[in-house]
Batch of 2 targets.
Target 1
Amino acid sequence: MNTPGVKAIYRFEMARTRRTLLQSIISPVISTSLYFVVFGSAIGSRITQIDGVSYGSFIVPGLIMLSLLTQSISNASFGIFFPKFTGTIYELLSAPVSYFEIILGYVGAAATKSIFLASIILATASLFVPLHIAHPVWMVVFLAMTAVTFSLFGFIIGIWAENFEKLQLIPLLIVTPLVFLGGSFYSINMLPPFWQTVTLFNPVLYLISGFRWSFYEIADVSVSTSLIMISVFLGLCIAIICWIFKTGYQLKD
Amino acid sequence: MSALIRVSNLSKTFAGGFTALDHIDLDIERGEILALLGPNGAGKTTLISIICGIINPTTGTVTVDGYDIIADYRKTRALIGLVPQELATETFENVLATVTFSRGLFGKTPNPEHVEKVLTDLSLWGKRHARIKELSGGMKRRVMIAKALSHEPRILFLDEPTAGVDVELRKDMWQLVRILRESGVTIILTTHYIEEAEAIADRIGIINHGRIILVEHKAELMRKLGKKELVLDLRHSLAAIPTALAAYNIELSADGRQITYTFDSNQDRAAITHFLDNLTAAGVQFKDLKTEQSSLEDIFVSLVNEAE
């Protein structure tokens, strides 16, 4: 195990966060606060409670997931795309580090950053609404699994992308709509039966549902189903990354 | 002595069908400076990239210090430092951080003294807190060398190290290369500047169309392939070369006032003496003479043209 190599990648990526503090931390916090103001005040005044939880509190897990998913993808995809873009990837490819160690460094740093950010959003949310976490251990499990899974997904996007446009394509056109339509701001029970069925095909629904359950013990789908879905997505990302490194796709030729 | 780097039957065909390397065999000896010369697209960078692990080979094997570059990549890569052709740097990072990062990436524990020495040797210590984007092109090149040396490699690949740098920096780099060689580092450099190879290399390899045309000790190469010319300024102009001198490989200038005799001193050590004797016998008088020897550049151009 090249421990100094993993540490070097991890520290280097974390240092980038410090250099871009405004973009990395402050901006998502401001965005989340705005969500509270807009959704909490505007919609919350009309929907007082969902499943016995105040609307403001209800949307907290969804807001955290929204930031967790987008930041995990953004951090990891940019982390590996930038060396490709600047050409410094040569150093990574010629270093005595295994693929696992590369992943550990990049994905570890991206997941750390997004979990840190989620914690800040949680703390910010507690200033606006009363929070109760029924299953803190499960909350951490969901948080960590989602952060790692979507950091892996971001890493794949970063390898796949050949330019900045492609880098933004999947997060903007697919991930963000899926998060908004996956029950971040509502329960799927509020939807007509047809749209409830459609929403069940949205993988993000399972992440938000499981995470919300860890807070309030209310869920759109069973907790075990949520865990299975995250595990399936995690496995899929790992399989794709194994294939990328085995073939050298977008890296070695 | 066994080769430090052994390249055997190495080929690389890219996905588009272009064959960059075509069954290359090459041994690089421990402690030498090998200069790889070749025109653009000859395969120099592809060869280096495969040895360093950046590109996968299509066929063939490479061993470094006896270890296979794929099966034992940790051991081989830890021995190698690479300065690539392109100026690729972490633009927003500072010099000290990027060099420290490189050392860690190659599995070495922090050693601030070594990093300081490398930066001092490259005249970068004063710039250690400067962001790379603030540096000149020459300084960025030095940063890339510092990164490559940060993990104390035993082998250093320099891919066009002095491309686009000024004369002073070029000479500094040559000096650095000599110092590194004295400390036992094996150096492989590719260059377009043939005088660079002539000035610092022990052996010269010439590569073209993905094939090694020749690998030879520099002195031996010059001895074997170098030609000499004797140029005579005549006292009286000649209308044509005298028949008595027809057997010699000579050329008469257009104004008839200069004769150039090309010969191989290795084959006939008394070539000049014989020629001058016959010249005098033919009644041709000269007022001045000089000899010229072909440069490595002449040899390189001639070999590449022959291969084509």
Target 2
Amino acid sequence: MTDQQEHISALKDIRNMMERSSRFISLSGLSGVGAGVAALVGAFLAHREFSRFDQRSFDRSAEYSAGLNGEADLEFNLIRIAVGVLAAALASGFLFTWLKARRSQLPLWDRTTRHMLVNLFVPLFAGGCFVLSLLFNSPALVSPACLVFYGLALINASKYTLTDIRYLGYLEVVLGIVNLVFPGLGLIFWTIGFGLLHILYGTVMYLKYERKSA
Amino acid sequence: MKNPIESLNKIFDSRIRLGVMSVLMVNERVNFNDLKQMLELTDGNLASHLNTLEQAGLISVQKGFVGKKTNTTYQATATGREAFRNHLNALEKMIKNID
């Protein structure tokens, strides 16, 4: 009897070590919710910029002759909003995940964290450069490119963290491709992908993994 | 029928060695400090267990440098993987038999 318990506990140990050493499991669902909220605020601000730009387009010819460039202004403001959203999303991502790691007494920074981040940020960085160029050359593709690159980055990183994130990745890629068919609705697709899906995914993850242990 | 106890590998009686092998089964190559952090061990303790595993031919050791610091990495050998799998199967069988 004690022998059997010994074997069962050995198997549990093995499983635990395999999982803990290969996957970053402290990623918190609340991080996703935080990023989603940041995206919604960002989308609202971007929407305001667009309508302001549209209003001004009535007297664009006057502006042009006065040496003002409303379009460059718009692009500059959008980049500023995007940087703000990124910073807020990363901050909330870090905060909730740090809290979760502390609660479960796991190290926040180890090889699994490094692996996950490298696998997430390599495609994300390539996508970022790509999107920045699209913003000036063919803005209609900005939102689909954001969604597709982000989805691929998530699928890539899912090998090193909770596998559920893979499904979020698939959804983002599909949304990005559908967005190609509706090029004028970029902001709406972007808001669904980065705002609503994040909040939905984060809530599901929180209920699945964290509420019981909290 | 063969008694499954015979297939239990004596080397894996130690939870630490079992832990090291578990980590090396799912990670291709791991360095000393990462192993130490994951298993929450002291240098000396981990080193002696790694030594035992290496002597038995279950893991291989590569010494290298990162800058001027030594960076020793460990990898499970084919023999090691096989031995670990057999050990797992034996554990499973024993649990099922007693049920």
